[in-house]
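Lab meeting tomorrow. Look over both lines:
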Amino acid sequence: MLKKLFLSAVLCTASMVTMAQSQIITHVVQRGETLESIAKYYNISVADLNNANPNADGIIYVGMKLAVPVATTSTTTTVATTPIAATETTSAPADATGVNQESESQITVSSTQASYSFTESKIGTFEPSVEFGLALGQFLGDGAKFGDEHMFKLTFGIHGAFGAKYFITEKFFAEALIGYRYLDGIGNRKTFELIYGDGAHGEFTTHSIYIPLYFGAKVNKLTFKAGPYFDNIVKGKYVAERPIGNFKQTVKVKDGKFSVGLNFCAAYDNYGVKFNIGLSDYGGKILDGGAKEMAFGIFMIF
């Protein structure tokens, strides 16, 4: 006689344990970022970001340090042992069958980890810099005149220099460069004819070691800087010519003639404008009586 003694199934439900911890990290604001983009990046709300930074008052700038509340989550899922069935049949001493099925316990652990990028502070760091520029200007002072007339209609200059910026704060920096400058004083034909006769013309050219020094600030793509520059002539000449009679006068500019001036610059991204004015006489005896340079120009920075 087949006798059904026992059939049972035991099911254990899955349990999930979630642990959440709040963590504060520091984010340095980069160019082009907004409160919305930062909040989206860290998967938090703008309100949470504002609450964590009450002093910001909803306004951020490049280099600003924000406190960001983030949460790390770990999830554990456990599925318990489930015996499926147990069956015993008795009919004759010789016949006995037992069946036992069992599934092993399984544990699945998953954790979500967020990865964050941190930007190092610029304070106390150096950044290479390169500057190229063109300028048009004029010599000022009695040394650049004959009577009431200017000796030179205008000056044309070109310079290139390289060096480095040192960041005092996230925005403010000191900069030092060294390079080459070429200056060409284009003669005023009317004045040269008064001095040397009909058809006369002339020019004044110099090649110099150029050393500009700056203090400035960089805010997003805007750069403002100002400071002194030093010009040391290594080669130069003054030339006056008159076709009639094959007249030509060439006077060498004394090597080592040193002058000082001030630069004022403003740039957007890599392009800017510059104004410079001399504080000391330029060119020595060639511009006898004292003459200072002044010029406006454009420049590129890298």
Observations:
- The two ends are 99 Å apart (CA to CA).
